[in-house]
Design goal:
Blueprint: H1 2-12, H2 19-24, H3 31-42, H4 45-58, H5 68-87, H6 92-99, H7 102-135, H8 139-187, H9 191-200, H10 219-235, H11 238-244, H12 250-261
């Protein structure tokens, strides 16, 4: 269904005449859909499968990753967004050229491209595997079809198609997670039963203040580490910067950031 939305908005946005129209939605995108798109872009299939697994096997301390976006928001709000809007760049690589030189921009672009070359196949593989397990459709065929459709609507619709597809996808994801939460909780006897079993398995860990860096998860490593992770993902990623710049003003971009954090 989300792919259908992407194709629809792709055709609706096909008559784009400028780079700003294509890359930034004409800088007229609405606040809430952009915020939802930001959430959807960070809440990948990898996150939905890996984070619950991490907490199930190694305890609840990793839930501090939900607090670090608040710390990240201060950095993005006061450092990154004002610079992006003052310069009115289309991508953050333009900033690197302005601040340093063209060669630095080229190196950063190559590194970003190489990173995505290795990362995106994993992003595609995980939902394709889940789809294969549910439907029995060939895994590799699913991955190819999914990739081609996404490339198609992104190419013809630009950022506008991507944002609205992400927004719809997030609605479906949140509804699905809500159903899983309710059904899972009821099936094991309620939250009290979950807490009791977590305690019996030594999985309820809220504050481990040990500074030892060899421990898998501590308060310091999770909170500090994921704060820098969030800052890099939201403040320094070209795809997220593009979404912030798609709204009409700096104040709107800050509202997007607040909604994203919540």
């Amino acid at each position: 269904m989300s792919i259908t939305v992407g194709i629809y908005y792709g055709f609706c946005g096909a008559e784009q005449k400028t780079t700003t129209d294509y890359l930034l939605g004409g800088k007229q995108m609405k606040i809430f859909p952009v915020a939802m798109s930001l959430v959807a872009s960070t809440l990948s299939g990898i996150s939905l499968l890996s984070l619950p697994t991490e907490i199930y096997f190694h305890g609840t301390l990793f839930m501090l990753i939900s607090i670090s976006p608040i710390l990240m928001a201060f950095a993005v709000n006061f450092i990154y967004l004002p610079v992006f809007f003052k310069l009115q760049v289309t991508t953050i690589f333009e900033y690197l050229e302005i601040r340093f030189q063209k060669n630095i921009r080229g190196v950063a672009s190559c590194v970003f491209t190489l990173t995505n070359f290795f990362f995106l196949p994993l992003v595609i593989y995980v939902p394709s595997l889940a789809f294969n397990q549910v439907t029995g459709i060939n895994l590799h065929m699913t991955a190819v079809v999914m990739s081609l459709i996404c490339i198609f609507y992104t190419t013809i619709g630009g950022l506008k198609a991507v944002v609205w597809t992400d927004a719809f996808q997030l609605c479906v994801t949140l509804c699905t997670l809500g159903c899983v939460l309710i059904m899972g909780t009821v099936s094991v006897g309620g939250f009290g039963s979950i807490w009791e079993k977590g305690n019996l398995g030594d999985r309820i860990e809220l504050f481990i203040l040990n500074p030892d860096p060899t421990i898998r998860n501590t308060f310091w490593s999770v909170l500090i580490g994921t704060t820098f992770l969030w800052t890099a993902a939201i403040g320094g990623n070209p795809a997220t910067a593009q979404r912030f710049l798609a709204v009409s003003s700096l104040s709107d971009a800050k509202k997007v950031l607040v909604i994203f954090v919540v």
